[in-house]
Amino acid sequence: MTTRLSIQLRVKIGTLILLLTILQFRGFSQIKNYEIFALKFATLNFKLPVAAAAVGSTSNDSTEICYMVYLIKEKNGKNILVDAGFTEPLQTYPMQAFTFVRPDSVLKRININPTDITDIIVTHPHWDHIDGIDLFPNAMIWMQKEDFNYFVGTAWQKGENPENNFNKNDVPKVIRKNLDGKLTLIKGDSIEIMPNIRVFIGSKHTFESQYVVVGSGADKVIIASDNSWLYYNLTSLLSIPVTLDQKAYLNNLKRMRGMVKDIDFIIPGHDPLVFTKFSKVAPGIVRIK
Ligand SMILES: [Zn+2]
User: pLDDT-based confidence at 173, cuts 50/70/90?
Assistant: First the structure.
């Protein structure tokens, strides 16, 4: 009897240890070292037809469009921004088109000062994602090498078409960062640039746009930025119009979907739904993890 009891007890303990191991893997992976926030700093003052954001859509709906930066906050460590937002729009966009608060002012709502930002991973050099880099004087900028090379060089050659989304004023800013030793160029796909922070390329939104994956195993957050404008692009598997290669864009939507169990954890670049899916910690700020 005693022996049988002790066997049962041992089985129970064994099961408990196994359960704890599984839980540790699923719920408490290395992502626990980071808190991840989405911060809205601008909204378009008119709605966009969903069909204009998703090629081939038959939807009659319209959606608000918002502009975000994302903060990956390492406990007792780095404060990493994904994208830097803008301080001024491209000439073709009047400032009156936006309800706008400078991204550094939004960060202050959660007690982050501009000098606290240690790194900025720029997903691509469109004006609404890169223009704000000078707001954060201490930050190391991380860009894909091919995206940088194109942005500061080929984009401005005859026959190229940069004026829709690149701001000339942003070129000297990023060149200055390079001269000051504040730019790291990343070359390639699935590169772990910091512990449990990995960048991926693939959507061809710009010459070599990238996105950021935080965490590992089942516990991941994908900061897609413009590698998906809306959740709608992900659920309908429809490309945005602004890409050099719609097939590559679509393939990458599929790839991102394959990386996570819950599509909510693929954070798109311009979707106000982000601010309804996660818990609010300050005006215009939600905590994703
Ligand atoms: Zn963009």
Answer: very high
